[in-house]
Amino acid sequence: ESRESANDSTDALDRSRTFNLPKLPVLQYDEREKFDGVVDDDSHVTLSETSPPFGRKGITNEVLMTTDAVLVNPIRVHRGILTITSTTIRFEETETPEIAASGRSLKRKSLAIKDITKFYFRRYLLRKTAVEIFFSDSTNYFFNFPKKGDRRKVFDKTRLASNTL
To answer: For the whole model, what pTM was predicted?
Structure first.
């Protein structure tokens, strides 16, 4: 009898833990902005999964794109020019009166495209205008673009240049 009373008490506990939730409606997928199968915002894409096999042999440092960009760090925002070549992504900060007055040096980065492991589309100040690029040495860079279509162009040109990814 003690076993039956123990089973009854566990059944009572199990019944008290179950919830009858209302059925939720099936939501249709909204047609958000897509990039070759990549959903926008905080999704990521590994370039090797989507890169077409573009052969770029024999061409070195051909400039594919130049655009205004902002390199965003946790401490400071650096306004400058982003240049994508066939082998590198280069960022060069433009000089402003604040930089000249402070006496600090301009930020310059040259990043090898072959070292890119992931490319994330991000939001910056609630606008869909930024990318975050991760590299094989565990570094990452967050770039924002003032022009709306530049984010997509940067992704396309980087994918074009990444024949090994």
So the answer is: 0.64
